[in-house]
Amino acid sequence: MTIKIACLQLDIAFGNPNENERRVEREIEKISKNHPDIIVLPELWTTGYDLTRLDEIADEGGMRTKAFIQKLAKSHHVNIVAGSIARKTDRGVTNTMYIADRNGIIVGEYSKLHLFQLMDEHLYLQPGEEMGLFTLENTQCAGVICYDIRFPEWIRVHMVQGAEVLFVVAEWPLPRLSHWRTLLAARAIENQCYVIACNRAGSDPNNVFAGHSLVVDPWGEIIAEANEEPCTLMAQIDLQKVREVRKQIPIFADRRANDYIAAEKNFLKKS
Ligand SMILES: NC(=O)CCC(=O)C(=O)O
Fold it and tell me: Could you tell me which residue ranges the CN hydrolase domain spans (predicted)?
């Protein structure tokens, strides 16, 4: 089964949800003419990293963004992996991804587990508490957010539960572009899955961002990659490739999970 993907590599207006909603609505209107199956947005697309003003600009319970995304998904009959937003909750602000299906139903949500200190997330945000598993187009998917890709064990626990496609939404700065490309290819190879990675373009007062949204196949080949400019990256994935690679090198059958657990318990006992 093939799935047509569109990554919206947006230049995000700093701290301006109204302008960013206008940009996303305009771009999805344009993208929909190519009839993608799934549209992907970047991390914190409503606010950018304007973390000092979250009391004013974060979305209470995600209600505004969920309604906005549900309307777009339903009216364009397209699935949307809606990047992430700053969501106000009763335990503080989380960096939260919502996923809507073609009927405008929210079929998943995930809040970033690993807070990135280099961009002050630990000062303003709360970590997530749940995994990011969901189903789109009858396909088991996982969703993670930016810094999460540096933690292979977090990605792996999603993959052992059946995920075949990993969505990554990000605001990844240009100085670490080589890490972005290498880490994404590594997560695809070690998990024998597609990796669909949507980064932002442009800059904010503290960072120039890398763009370079990309799609990696289960063999680790980058099959589509953007440059640094705002754009929409289109790609087609074929899930049969996941099954072929996993049959050729059966890593999930060859895993020795009990040994890993025993080794970690042994280490923890000693420390
Ligand atoms: N928004 C992020 O989590 C950035 C992560 C990053 O830049 C990294 O190097 O990791």
Answer: 3-239
